[in-house]
């Protein structure tokens, strides 16, 4: 392909970039050429990519059309590569900020988080029984258990009935890949006994929480949405984040459905069925943490765990109308999580409310630094309705805390997206390489098969340059 070599960009050293509001850096809009494919078209495309004759040409065209050659493959970058996204933290002099003690136990951190929240109404839940649908929050569960209005065991029984009903026709929502009614009832019984003794562990005691099937959670296998991965990588216990929730008394109710290997944002799984959107079962709930978003959207759990490497928590949260939170790298230990994209994929939280996401994050987060880094949100490249909503939220924060907005320029945003895609693709391909040699590609669904083929087309030169851009 030497004769067709695309010219590469020469990037300035970072110290020469003007990041101010009057910068002359050019904003390059995204131009993604990746049509949605399924059925026969996906099979034909997979055959082309895996063909010795046509595959190399197809990959070359795909990379060129999506500007990977221009911005990554043939680019000149002076910076050294960065393989783990760790940055120094900046001390901030913030007012009205309460820090959660990182050295406290998960249950103690949950209590500290609860203390940060405004007092909730102590009204009995009977007040809501004649009203329309209402998601229970973690505070609702905790209050109802303490007041003896209901028990974790009764909640577990209703949960199991609801999952069974939603899995049957005409709904067939496919929330879960695996759930064990006996194990759920066992956990609920233990929690009920703790409340009867007046000794709940935390506000999460007896609260149902679901786990994406990319995270180890005993007694379930971890499939990653496949039919084979759990056979070559057995689950031997809880992931660290799951163990922390369990130590708070939460009821782990099963492994939620997901897009196979987290490959695309639709969330549709050819092996376990599509996790449908509870608002409209004819629509998707988004992916790849599709089941986690749907189970929270339906009100079956106030919160669920997902994993986000490129929007896999945030996109299904958006499509399902719930809160999606992807923490900063390193805030939640990654042990016990499938290593599909270990430097960009983080355990995240899907919840019905911002407060519930905060409580779960307090339980599962690891050792935090004394101060968090400065955050500069940027949201101009989006739908006008979203931009106005974000701008109004920033304005309210400015008025409440006497903050001010700072105009900045973020250069090379499209380049960052492509560098991210090369990174996540290379890491996923590497994580699966030994299994692919033994299994081949016949165990994959067709859309995941196409994605894995494309991921495997990135070479070491492109990966290293992506880390330089990082």
Structure description:
With 470 residues, this protein is α/β, with parallel strands linked by helices. The chain has two domains: 133 residues, no CATH class; 259 residues, Amidase signature (AS) enzymes (Alpha-Beta Complex), CATH 3.90.1300.10. Helix content is 39%, strand content 8%. Strands 1-3-2-6-8-7 form a six-stranded mixed β-sheet, with helices on both faces. Strand 4 and strand 5 form a beta hairpin. Helix 4 runs antiparallel to helix 12 and helix 14 packs antiparallel against helix 16. The longest helix is centred in the C-terminal third of the chain and has 27 residues. The protein is globular. The two termini are 27 Å apart. One of its GO terms (molecular function) is catalytic activity. InterPro entries: Amidase, Amidase_dom, AS_sf. It comes from Gossypium davidsonii. Pfam families: Amidase.
């Amino acid at each position: 392909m030497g004769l067709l070599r695309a010219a590469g960009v020469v990037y300035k050293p970072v110290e020469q970039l003007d990041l101010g509001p009057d910068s002359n850096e050019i904003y390059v809009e995204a131009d993604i050429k990746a049509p949605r494919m399924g059925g026969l078209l996906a099979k034909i495309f997979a055959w082309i990519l895996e063909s010795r004759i046509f595959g190399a040409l197809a990959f070359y065209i795909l990379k060129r059309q999506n500007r990977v050659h221009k911005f990554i493959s043939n680019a000149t970058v002076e910076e050294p590569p960065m393989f783990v996204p760790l940055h120094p933290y900046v001390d901030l002099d913030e007012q009205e900020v309460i820090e959660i003690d990182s050295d406290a136990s998960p249950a103690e951190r949950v209590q500290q988080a609860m203390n940060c929240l405004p007092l909730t109404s102590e009204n009995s839940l009977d007040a809501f029984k004649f009203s329309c649908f209402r998601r229970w929050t973690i505070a609702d569960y905790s209050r109802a258990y303490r007041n003896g209005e209901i028990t974790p065991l009764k909640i577990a029984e209703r949960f199991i009935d609801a999952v069974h009903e939603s899995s049957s026709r005409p709904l067939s929502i496919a929330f879960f890949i695996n759930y064990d009614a006996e194990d759920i009832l066992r956990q609920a019984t233990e929690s009920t006994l703790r409340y009867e003794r007046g000794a709940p562990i935390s506000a999460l005691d007896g609260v149902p929480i679901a786990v994406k099937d990319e995270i180890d959670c005993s007694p379930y296998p971890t499939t990653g949405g496949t039919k084979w991965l759990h056979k070559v990588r057995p689950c031997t216990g809880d992931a660290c984040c799951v163990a922390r929730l369990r130590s708070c008394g939460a009821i782990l109710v099963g492994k939620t459905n997901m897009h196979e290997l987290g490959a695309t944002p639709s969330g549709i799984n050819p092996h376990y069925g599509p996790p449908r959107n509870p608002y409209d079962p004819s629509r998707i709930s988004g992916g790849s943490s599709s089941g986690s978003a749907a189970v929270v959207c339906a009100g079956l759990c106030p919160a669920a765990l997902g994993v986000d490497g490129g929007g896999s928590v945030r996109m299904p949260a958006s499509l399902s109308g719930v809160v999606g939170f992807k923490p900063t790298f390193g805030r939640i230990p990654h042990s016990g999580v499938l290593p599909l994209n270990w430097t960009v994929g983080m355990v995240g939280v899907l919840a019905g409310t911002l407060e519930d996401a905060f409580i779960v994050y307090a339980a599962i987060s690891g050792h935090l630094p004394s101060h968090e880094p400065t955050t500069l949100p940027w949201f101009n490249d989006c739908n006008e309705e979203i931009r106005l909503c974000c701008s109004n939220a920033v304005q309210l924060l400015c008025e409440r805390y006497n903050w001010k907005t700072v105009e900045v320029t973020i250069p090379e945003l499209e380049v960052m997206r492509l560098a991210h895609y090369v990174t996540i693709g290379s890491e996923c391909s590497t994580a699966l390489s030994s299994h692919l040699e033994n299994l081949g590609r016949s165990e994959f669904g067709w859309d995941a098969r196409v994605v894995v083929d494309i991921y495997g087309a990135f070479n070491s030169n492109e990966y290293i340059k992506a880390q330089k851009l990082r």
